[in-house]
Amino acid sequence: MTNAEKKTLAVTACKVRMGVIEGVHGAKAGHPGGSLSAADLFTYLYFKEMKVDPKNPRWADRDRFVLSKGHTAPGLYAALANRGFFPVEDLPTLRHIDSYLQGHPNMNTVPGIDMSTGSLGQGVSTAVGMALAAKTTGRDYRTYTLLGDGEIQEGQVWEAFMSAAHYKLDNLLVFIDNNGLQIDGEVAKVMSPYPIDEKMKAFGFNVININGHDFDEIEAACEAAKACKGKPTAVVMKTTKGKGVSYMENQAGWHGKAPNDEQYEIAMNELRAQLAEVEAK
């Protein structure tokens, strides 16, 4: 990846994070912490990796993305809006009555959403079905899904992983956002999923550990997944919950609440400063 490409992605990631703050502040509710930790992945997938067409969201040969941790919809919405699927100006309508941008992704109302998700653990099962459908019908689209590290405490997740390996779904790429925190605190203390990578290997996955805020590492993982044949790939991303907003970083309390007006201004000023710094390079 060239420096120019990385700069463009970094600029976009700043805008995605700003969109997250705009959304949850406008809603006076929502989930900023995990949206911010996954913002770099959302950016890479929709602006570099995936075959998608904002003018034709239901394009049959598009790559699919399933947000299994559906509560981080503010991050996905911000990426879709900046990619051109719908107006960025609509982000502050998040969770409002009659808004099409509800608290969890709705494939019937939001352009670019491939699956309605909400109940944790279920999205990855859908992603497995999509990948299996592509194999069965001879289509070459790829399926991507993102889970939280707290979400993988769900039993259904492991049934889906077992199925993905059983059917040799090498067209499936599973990302696990390992920011270490869930709504009740540290995942290691609530119900430890560790060692995540070794468990995924035991379930038949090709496993890659990366820094989820490094675009070069995300790209390398995606390319390695494409090169791996006969088994699905899992990418365990080490991330910072609340990444980009100082008072939200590594704070479990920001899993599911919105900033007030003063906190909104602080967050936006920090993100504007980061955007200006990136653009100046």
From TrEMBL:
Keyword field: Thiamine pyrophosphate
Cofactor: thiamine diphosphate
CDD domains: TPP_TK
Residue ranges of domain Transketolase N-terminal in the record: 15-263
Gene3D superfamilies: 3.40.50.970
Family statement: Belongs to the transketolase family.
Name of protein: Transketolase
Organism: Anaerofilum hominis
Top-level taxonomy: Bacteria, Bacillati, Bacillota, Clostridia, Eubacteriales
